[in-house]
Amino acid sequence: MTRQSDTYTAHAIADKLRAEGTPFAVATVVRTLASTAAKPGMKALVLGNGDFADGWLGGGCVTAAVKKAAIMAIKTGEATLVCLRPEELLADMKDAAKDEMVQLARNGCPSKGSMDIFVEPVMPQPELLICGSGPVASALLRIAASFGFSLVLCGEIEHAIADRQYASLGEMCSASLPAVDRYIVIATQGKGDVAALQAALKMAASYTAFVGSRRKFASYEDKLTAAGVSVAQIATVRSPAGVHINAVTPEEIALSIMAEIIQTRRTARQQHAADDA
Description:
This protein is of the alpha/beta class and 277 residues long. It contains 11 helices and 12 strands. Helix 5 (135-144) crosses helix 11.
């Protein structure tokens, strides 16, 4: 753990962690009462295992409380406020303890100081990989731009706005794609469906979906198996893609897919947090 560094160094470390796709939390002292080592505005960067990547906020009592809060914030993706108080003042915080965002912690240090520390997670940007060039792929690309995903397109869509774009599966597969929180939608709609599914199932993903009917997807299962794709892998594909809203137009189908992706992502986070609680 390092002492409080200059702002330039902290920003450089934060930028490096973002570029590497490493989740971390920013812990900021927002208020202090009585004698405390850290003062309002001081910050620390905390990794997912509780290690401090940069900064210093005080002694053992403060460090332990911030580590615990940072680990939970990174797991849930939700910010929290750590209220550190000497034991005799904790009883006055009962109402605050009812707020799920607040974590109470005892300050056993001789200084008897109080601190409020805001802990905010900084998560890697999730990636949405859309394979296809048709109306559904185009509509999904437009809708997804509003949800904070890094957009990767494998296909030819005129005036497409994507963070990365590949003209073909071969080009995409030869690229060095980072290991991230990835969501894949196969919207090839009859133009290279099997090849796209094969490529998708070779990549680690939190969600893989096929735009097409169950019957159409089932007709590809023998070809996928013959190509070496396991039955277990095939079973992970959502088909038809999207939640059931009686969607008809490309925009409606795209909306239903985005809803399913968000549902999948949020449910996984909540389950992960519950398992570690």
